[in-house]
From TrEMBL:
Domain of life according to the entry: Bacteria
Gene3D superfamilies: alpha/beta hydrolase
Keyword terms: Signal
Protein name in UniProt: Acetylxylan esterase
Species name: Flavobacterium humidisoli
Cleavable signal peptide: 1-22
Length: 474
C-alpha cells in the first residue's frame, strides 16, 4: 500500500511539473515564480538554497528557467537573483542563503575569487609597487583629501592633566578643518622626560565609543610602556555629536573627515616635545580597524600597524564612514585584504576571530597578505593572531596579542606593565568616567564660537554637494 501511495505521489509531482512547464511558454515570456526556478537549480546542481528571510515571496521572472547556465551554479544564481538586487552566500555547511544586494559584502567564495584575481595582477615587487602607487593615488582622490582645506592655525584646546601611576591623561580638541573640531584624549608616559613613540587609536563602532573600558585599558597600557597614545572620536559620535547630528555619521564625508583626523593628529604630534615621529603606530578595532588600514596605506609616517577584527576580502565595512567613498573601486576593484597589504614591508599584526567576517583570515586573507610581504623578502614582518572561538570585539585576549607586538616594533618597555608573575596587568589602569574624558562636556554652548554645525558647508569645503538632506539643528 505504501508503495502505491509513493507511486501516486511521484506521478502527481511529475504531472504538476509538466503542467507548470506547459504553461511556461513564449506566450507568457516563460514567466515563472523565482522560487520554482531555484527549486529546479537545487535539483540540477544538487544543492540546498534557503530563502530564510522570505525575500523571494511573490517574485516572478521572465525567461526564468532559460537563465539557468548548465554546469555553472554561480552564473545561474546570479542570473536569477540580480534582477531583484538579491545575491547569494554560500554557508560553511554548503547551503546557499539569499540576501539583499550590498556593495560592501560578498560571499567568502567570491572574496577568494577576488584574491586569486588580484594575485594574477602582480608577481614581482616592481609590479606590486606600481599597483600600490595607483591604489594610493586613487584613495586620496576618492576620499577627497587632495581637496581638503589647509589645517587652521588655531592652537589645540587641552584640558588639565590627570596623573596616574606611570601615565597621564589630558583631553584635546584639534581644529582639523575650519570650525570642525576633532576630540579625543592623549595618554602619555609619566614622567615624560625622553623621546616616546606615537600611537594613534581611531575609534570603532563599539558601544560607548572611545570612553569604553577596553579602549582606556589599551591606551593606558601602551602609555605605561612608553608611547604617546591618542584616542579620538568618530565623526558625529561622542563629543562630535555637539557639532553634527548622529545621522550624519552615515554620510560619505564622515570617512573623509575620519581619515583626515588621523593625518592631522599626526601633524600635531610632530610638534609635541619628546614625540618620536620615527616610531609611529596605529591600531583600532572594527570601524577603527578600517581606518587603521586606511591610515597605514596613505600616511608613510606610520611604521607599525595592527588592524583588529576588520581585515577581510569579502566585507569592506557596513558603514559609509568606512566604505562610502568608493575607495574599494580603486584599481578596477580592491578590498581590505589588499589595502592591508599596502603596509608591506612594515610590521603589521592582523587580529581576527571566528565569529565575524574575519573568520577565514588564517586560510584566506593572511596568506594573500604574506605573499605581498614575500615580494620584499619580509614575510616574517606580518603576523596573524586568530581567536577562533571569539567574536567581534577588542577583548583582553586581543589586547594581550597587541601589546608585545607594539613593544617589539616600537621599542617599548613591556616589563613596565608586568606584575610579579610576569603577566601583563591592566588592573592598575584607571577607568575614567565620561565627564573626565570630555573636552567641551555635553553642552553645545561650550564649543568655540566658530564651531561648524552645518553638514552642507562641510561638503562645500571639499567642493562637493551633500546629496543627503537633513534638517540642520540650530
Amino acid at each position: 500500500m505504501k508503495n502505491i501511495k509513493y507511486i501516486i505521489t511521484i506521478a502527481v509531482s511529475i504531472f504538476a511539473l509538466t503542467f507548470a512547464n506547459a504553461q511556461s511558454t513564449s506566450d507568457t515570456n516563460f514567466r515563472k515564480p523565482v522560487s520554482e526556478t531555484l527549486k529546479k537549480i537545487e535539483t540540477v546542481f544538487n544543492v540546498t538554497i534557503n530563502d530564510d528571510r522570505g525575500l523571494l515571496k511573490g517574485k516572478e521572472l521572465d525567461y526564468a528557467d532559460w537563465r539557468i547556465e548548465p554546469g555553472n551554479l554561480a552564473i545561474s544564481l546570479t542570473n536569477i537573483l540580480a534582477p531583484f538586487e538579491l545575491m547569494y552566500f554560500k554557508q560553511p555547511d554548503g547551503t546557499y542563503i539569499i540576501r539583499k544586494y550590498e556593495n560592501h559584502k560578498v560571499s567568502v567564495d567570491k572574496g577568494k575569487e577576488r584574491l586569486f584575481y588580484l594575485e594574477s595582477l602582480y608577481s614581482t615587487k616592481e609590479q606590486w609597487e606600481k599597483r600600490k602607487t595607483e591604489l594610493k593615488a586613487c584613495m586620496i582622490t576618492s576620499f577627497g583629501l587632495d581637496k581638503a582645506p589647509p589645517t587652521p592655525k588655531s592652537k589645540p584646546l587641552l584640558t588639565p592633566k590627570r596623573i596616574y601611576k606611570d601615565y597621564s591623561v589630558e583631553n584635546i580638541a584639534l581644529e582639523i578643518l575650519p570650525g570642525v573640531y576633532a576630540t579625543g584624549s592623549i595618554y602619555k608616559p609619566y614622567p615624560l622626560n625622553k623621546k616616546a613613540a606615537v600611537i594613534l587609536t581611531p575609534d570603532g563602532h563599539f558601544g560607548d565609543g572611545r570612553y569604553r573600558k577596553d579602549e582606556q585599558y589599551r591606551c593606558a597600557i601602551m602609555a605605561k610602556m612608553g608611547a604617546i597614545v591618542v584616542s579620538y572620536d568618530l565623526f558625529a559620535w561622542g563629543e562630535s555629536l555637539l557639532q553634527f547630528p548622529e545621522e550624519t555619521h552615515r554620510n560619505s564625508i564622515a570617512s573623509t573627515v575620519q581619515v583626515l583626523t588621523g593625518i592631522r593628529f599626526l601633524d600635531y604630534l610632530a610638534t609635541v616635545k619628546n614625540a618620536d615621529m620615527s616610531r609611529v603606530g596605529v591600531t583600532g578595532g572594527s570601524g577603527g580597524g578600517s581606518h587603521t588600514m586606511f591610515l597605514a596605506a596613505l600616511d608613510d609616517r606610520i611604521k607599525v600597524s595592527a588592524p583588529v577584527v576588520m581585515v577581510s576580502s569579502h566585507f569592506s565595512g557596513g558603514c559609509p564612514c568606512e566604505s562610502g567613498r568608493g575607495i574599494h573601486l580603486c584599481g578596477n576593484g580592491t578590498n581590505n585584504a589588499e589595502i592591508s597589504a599596502m603596509m608591506a614591508p612594515k610590521p603589521q599584526l592582523i587580529v581576527s576571530d571566528g565569529k565575524d567576517w574575519t573568520l577565514a583570515v588564517p586560510e584566506l586573507e593572511f596568506p594573500f597578505i604574506q605573499r605581498t610581504y614575500e615580494l620584499y623578502g619580509k614575510k616574517d614582518l606580518v603576523e596573524n593572531a586568530h581567536f577562533a572561538k571569539e567574536g567581534h570585539d577588542f577583548g583582553v585576549s586581543k589586547r594581550m596579542a597587541l601589546y608585545p607586538f607594539m613593544a617589539k616594533y616600537l621599542n617599548l618597555d613591556l616589563n613596565k606593565v608586568k606584575n610579579d608573575k610576569g603577566e601583563i596587568d591592566e588592573s592598575a589602569c584607571v577607568i575614567e568616567t565620561y565627564d573626565k574624558l570630555y573636552v567641551f562636556g555635553n553642552k553645545a554652548e561650550n564649543l568655540p564660537k566658530n564651531a561648524l554645525k552645518d553638514i552642507n558647508k562641510l561638503y562645500e569645503m571639499f567642493g562637493e554637494k551633500n546629496l543627503k538632506v537633513y534638517e540642520v539643528k540650530k
